[in-house]
Structure formats: C-alpha cells, structure tokens
Amino acid sequence: MRLPEPTGRMTNHAGSQDDVAALILDENGMIIECNQVAEKLLGYPSDELILHHISMLLPQLEAGPLIKGDRINPKLKFMCHCGQLFRVLDRQCQSFFSELHLVELSNQGGPALRAILCPASQ
Question: Which domain holds residue 112?
C-alpha cells in the first residue's frame, strides 16, 4: 500500500524518545486522553484533542474501524506491526510521518486503545 503524498510543508521530527506521543482512544476512535508530549508534538492543548476522532490527526484512520469485535482491526494491527508509516497532521496542518503502535487497554466502559506515535526520521 502506497502512502498518499503529504500536503503542506513537511516538518522535521527526529525519532527520539522525547517525541513519543501517547493518546488514549475509545472504541470509536475518539481521543479521551493525551500526554504532554502529544500536546507539544501535535501543537494542540489536550482540551482541543479530547472528544475528537483520531482521523483529525491521522487521516488514514478515517477509512475503517479501529476495533472489530473487541480487538484491534486485524488489517490495522498488521500495518502497525509491519512498521508502515502513517501521515500525521499537526495543528498547523503540517505533515510528518510516524510509526503507529496500538495497544489494547481494558476499560470499564468498553474497549480502549493507546495510540503511540513514533515520528520517523526525515
């Protein structure tokens, strides 16, 4: 699968440990929590990310469900496992590429995911 060409100026994000952003998503892909690194990397304060769909940041995730049944969508899990790069849009609509790691979490309200972004070196 070929990634679409990003629009806008590419931002230079080094793939250091300090650039790892973590977001907690509900079963519908809505952001319910994020760490300070995510705020800094993406340029949004947490209150502007909460209750927005993850596809606002990762447009590729608009195409299908993140969870099928009570597990991560197998196709998405495979893409993440293979290290496919996903295009990420920050608040300024600047693009950068990142690995995406998804971790299933147990949540009393239903399935939840931790989405970890690891920006690729450019």
Answer: 17-119
